[in-house]
Amino acid sequence: MIILMNKRLIKIGFLFLLLLFSKINMSQNFEKCGSMLLLQKAMKENNQIESKRNLINQKVYAESMSNVTIPVVVHVVYSNAQNNISDSRIFSQIQVLNEDFRRTNSDAINTPSQFQSVVADMSINFCLASKDPDGNPTNGIIRKFTNKSGFSLYDTTIHYNATGGSDAWDSDKYLNIWVCNINGGILGWAQFPYAGTKETDGVVINYDNFGINLNYSSAYKLGRTTTHEVGHWLNLFHVWGDNTCGDDFVFDTPTQEQANYGCKIHPHISCQNSGDMFMNFMDYSDDDCMNSFTNGQKSRAWNCLLNYRDKIFISDGCDTTNFSMSCDASIESIIHPLSNDSICDQKIYPAIVIKNNSSDPMYTLDINYRLNGQQYTYQSWSGNLSQNMSDTVYLASLKNLQNNNILEIEVSLPNSKIDLDFSNNFLSTNYYSNIGRTVNIQVQTDNYAQENQWYLYKEVNNSIIDSGVVLNNNTLYEREYCLTQGCYHFVIFDSGNDGICCNFGNGYFNAFFGDSLIGSGGSFINIDSLSFCISNENQTTNLNNLHDPVLDIYPNPASENLFFKLKSQITINNPIFVGIYDIAGKKILTKKITSNNLNISSLENGVYVLFINIDSTQHTTKFVKNK
Ligand SMILES: [Zn+2]
User: Fold this and answer.
1) Active site residue 332
2) Does residue 487 sit in the same domain as residue 381?
């Protein structure tokens, strides 16, 4: 059973047609192709189309039939992994088109000798577009996810982004091929050149039938569905003329009674011909049974190209000449931060190496970079780099907002032109941020370093961050710390009571935040210290010197030794008396101390009050004992 295209059926209407479809799908002779149905519907809706069709149906030779290459854009409109077909499937389809339309297909030898004189090289080539309508490089493949599980004939939603499909590229200059799941058993359809809008112009192919798909258990898995539909797109009709012994308006295809399915044996005679041309691409035979176009079809297709699709000849969709390799910049490396770096500061100052790979000098480059998938920050580079030269670029800072960070950097548009090789334009790195500030401490010892020791404490948890207890004479100790929010104390002792400057050598100590000096010293008697805090306000860090209090103890909490920093000197000749009371006021101990520290290792954990008598004035402070 086949569908006969006549006026009566058209009047029955579209709904009945669909019903008919679902029935004939069950039989072997189902309607593979929706193109003629689509044309009939268009003619019904617009009576000018029929006259246009009649005009182009003249059986004439085309005036000029030199080679043409048609730029193709493939819209893969997918709803799952299965119909998101691979690039290689797409490449295989383009190859099949090129072979079939140039008669370089390996099965061309199967054409019966009776037809050898009429079969044709169509002189039509295809490329996957290399340049998009905006002039940018492309691979000619668009992938769009859709929520729709399938698309139906007469349903134009496949042609628009807004309706779950994909917008056509300028169909005057590109052959648009939509690949999707087609409902209703149809393998594909095409729009005839005079029978629809630019937005819907092109061909639609069921994903399983697109390209060479050998895993598919169907007779239509060798890409011939697309060859057939592109034939329609070039105004070719079915060889049986969609009527019993109908006319396809081609002079060298035999009149045949109806569509052929499967693979007939030549000669398969009908309509008093000497054999159907069932191996013609415009019949319904199995993919491995069809292998030919004819000279008449070539003339008809070229008439279509010359009269209806002539802008194809001026399309630059296959052009790559403007994308010379003289436009290739690359990002060679991220030199800061390095992978897995631990960064102290709240901000990161990325640095990269860029390179000009082109023969032309590079004067400008766009750089976009971001942290953790947030919005890109843009920075432009300008300079003068000859071929294979590189430059280090320091980028404006980004704020670290979390401990574990991913930095992504992309370069583009060297000299404001399209970069042809995208593969070397992007790098990323991960690093850790402590969200603190970098503090540097220098201690230069004198001739008697064995008299000295120093400690850096964090006030709150009493942690000794670092210490220098065994020191060499006349040596510079330089330490860098990443310090988080809180207050810190650097304290240095000299058991010889002569400081580290300047009687027996020129020692000193300095503490820096970045380039700014927190404090320094060296000329002291028994003890000196620096106190500073790092606060966190509005994402910026302030560094404050603390003024020396009258009574200053370190560390707090303390575990073993409580150190004193006093304005007055503590020596054997000038001892001071201290008292320690618990929080309830009970005296725990009193002691005369002759050095700057008090051993409290015998105390239980807890909060204590320290009394000290200085200059006839009693001072108190609380401290915490914590083992
Ligand atoms: Zn067809």
Assistant:
1) no
2) no
